[in-house]
Amino acid sequence: MRNLNHELENNGLSLIKVSTFAEPKSEFSLPTYEKLTELLLEEMACPSYVVAYLDHAVMVGLLDQQELNFYHLQDFQIEHLQTLRVFNSTSELLVWRNNRAFQGRLREDKYDDDERDKEYIVVAEQVLWGTNVEHLPGGWSYITEERGFNMVVPLEGVRVDQKGNRLKIKTHNYIGFNELGLAGYVDTRFVNFTGGGIE
Question: CA torsion sign, 76 to 78 to 83 to 88?
């Protein structure tokens, strides 16, 4: 295990043990944006970050104070939603479109001292595009890059540049084994935003 840890660390990864539980959500309908907000408030604690993958854009927001908030109170048409991740340091609700309905998965991690039922997971940080930032009112930041990428995030004081200061998403990557005993990732959840001067 020591060699594996060393190899992971050389690639910017780390191996930890957590108690984790995943609950699948069978098919359900989301007829309106209001119904989506109700579902998120039922399943997730506030505050939580929200990343919505739409047909035409990616929106980042915050589930806070009993509301789903995107910059300038934007919302979107449910028919354009492909995937949604709502996450905080301990849990994530993942929702995805399955034809005309939706399915989901709620995953929760516990970081306690009890070693029973703990699983190894790989912790990674995915670097996001964006080397320029404009600070917006209300604690939001507008991140852009010359190649055309742009994103508004509900984070205050972000600092990014072309010298390696970048915003990242911390992920937990869960290890499972197939019928041959070979290990691989069986699930991934978003945990938090890191980097960009916000640690």
Answer: positive
pLDDT at 181: 83
pLDDT tens digits, residue range 34-74? 999 999 999 999 999 999 999 999 999 999 988 999 999 89
Q: Could you tell me which residues come within 8 angstroms of residue 178 by beta carbon, excluding any fewer than 6 positions away?
A: 184
Question: Each residue of 126-165: b (16+ CB within 10 Å) or e?
Answer: eebebbebeeeeeebbbbbeeeeeebbbbbeebebeeeee
The amino acid that residue 22 corresponds to is A
| Rounded Cα distance, 151 and 141, in Å | 8
**How close are the terminal C-alpha atoms of the chain, in Å?**
29
Between 14 and 181, where is the model more confident?
14
What is the number of structural domains in the chain?
Answer: 1
State the Cα angle at 22 between 20 and 28, rounded to 5°: 160
Strand-pairing partners, residue 166, are none
Q: Contact, 30 vs 102, CB < 8 A?
A: yes
Show the domain range for 28.
Answer: 2-195
Shortest CA distance to 60 belongs to which of 148, 150, 160, 194? 150
* Cβ burial, residue 179 (10 Å; 0-12/13-18/19+): exposed
Tokens of 14: 């780390």
Element (H, E) at 98: strand 91-98
User: What 3 state SS string does 18-45 have?
Assistant: EEEEEEEEEEECCCCHHHHHHHHHHHCC
Confidence check: pLDDT of 192 > 80? yes
